[in-house]
Amino acid sequence: MNDELKDFAFLPLGGTGEIGMNLNLYRLNGKWLAIDCGIGFSGNDMPETDILLPDPEFISRHKDNLLGLVITHAHEDHIGAVAYLWPDLECPVYTTPFATSIVKRKLREAGLLSEVSVRTIKMADRFKLGDFDLEFIPVTHSIPEAQSIVIRTPYGTVLHTGDWKFDPEPVIGEKTNLETFAKLGQENILAMVCDSTNVVVKQAPQSEASVRRSLTTLIASLKGRVAITCFASNVSRIESIAYAAKQVNRPVVIIGRSLRNLEVSARENGYLKNIPPFYTEQNMSDIEQNNIVYIITGSQGEEKAALTRISQDLHQHISLGSGDTVIYSSRTIPGNELAVKRVQDNLIRRNVKLITSKTELVHVSGHASYDEVCQLYKLVRPKYGIPVHGEWMHLNAQANVARESGAEPILLEDGDILRLAPQNPTIIGSAPYGRLVIDGNRLLSVDDDILAARRRMLYNGVVVASFAVNKKGELLSDLNLSAPGLFDQYDEEFGDVVSEFSQILETLPIAILHDDTELIENSKTILRRILGRKLKKKPFVDVHLIRI
Hints:
Elements: E1 8-14, E2 23-28, E3 31-35, E4 40-41, E5 51-54, H1 57-61, E6 66-70, H2 76-79, H3 82-89, E7 93-95, H4 97-109, E8 118-120, E9 126-129, E10 132-138, E11 147-153, E12 156-160, H5 178-184, E13 191-195, H6 208-221, E14 226-229, H7 235-247, E15 252-255, H8 257-268, E16 293-296, H9 306-311, E17 325-328, H10 337-349, E18 353-355, H11 370-380, E19 384-388, H12 392-404, E20 408-409, E21 416-421, E22 426-430, E23 435-439, E24 442-445, H13 449-460, E25 462-469, E26 480-482, H14 492-506, H15 510-513, H16 516-535, E27 540-547
Parallel strand pairs: 3-6, 6-7, 7-8, 12-13, 13-19, 14-16, 14-17, 15-16, 17-18, 19-20, 25-27
Antiparallel strand pairs: 1-2, 1-21, 2-3, 4-5, 5-23, 9-10, 10-11, 11-12, 21-22, 23-24, 25-26
């Protein structure tokens, strides 16, 4: 083995400098460990796609030395990309029982279940992958069985926190055991790689139990149907909603495939055990319609989600209006603000009452606040603090916490290779990283020519010209021009474009008229110039030539 591979290094390929798409790598003497493999949402700047994935190109080149993928918890931004990216990783997957249920369902749907070794690790267990000595530490989060990971190596120990908070009154699972972290702090921890999502909030939020009590009071005060939207993977919140509905004798209907799958996985693992089975769209006609509580997907304004379609009165089974209430029991992920506002405006236009966390206690974050992050630093006492899982404002805020706590902060971004040991931590290079999008049954880079063309068509339109010529290049018929979204074909301006284009074609040199390739390329250039003058836009232009 080369001397340069005898080290301990950290490399984020997703989730550092952004929200979501978490994919973190550790290298120990040439062998790799991956932690989490999640999706992200594209937001308003990429309307041509909904879901983003981290690009695994770098670790794919080293997959022969990849010992395994360890999942901290089953939220989509940590587990949602596994079924898409596993063919690039081809390694065993290690998860807790609940996450095992989630990831196996995703792999089954992708036709990969028989190929992937999914190995279940009990909460708080300690296990080894090669020379990586790993230990799970259960932490409170908004989903069952969230785990921090202690990574012990011959060079030192790192705490990879995953997503966590110190909820004094969780509704699912136990409170985070502070004594466990205090004991860990006695081991001379080299570094803490820590969640930064909520560190810009000063005080710890109220507990999930407080939200449960608030929802119970709120739902009891409402008339008509109540629809509550939240993240489909937030089992704690779903149980809180169901509990609140149960207290006021309201039946609960879950709307959305992801929610139905989540219910199955939760009940398989002993969660929701005191909650009656939920109704679905298929059997909700059996219950009193005006007394229903819907739990529904679409809290981020996703175009195809159930709540978006309901707001547009396009849902097959549900129509909300005057007398009904929609509760947003979630936060808006940065970048989704316009999409969420659009859905909310549509609901208000339909006379639906709207309730959000701005006016009622209907949501608390599952991530640690400033005060909680300070407390964890004091317990663990790492030599270095490495912020991840957040945009730059979050990373920088946690760096300040690390500094205040006596740790030396190290700010990274995706692609930075940080050698943690044996020398002092140093960025020693960079790895290729990027973002992929799901396009039907394929994955494309966000920089792919296909998506670039799609963006251009989205903002500038598309124009297709078709015409037939004889061997001499003479037009044999009228020019056919299609420009949907740019012109009405009966507009005088549209006729002017067709006429000018035809006249210029007839004046082209004979050498161009006789060469199909030259004629097509020149036709595109001519059409772009005409459209640029007329529209002050640069639409995507294509030309279909028929030579007879």
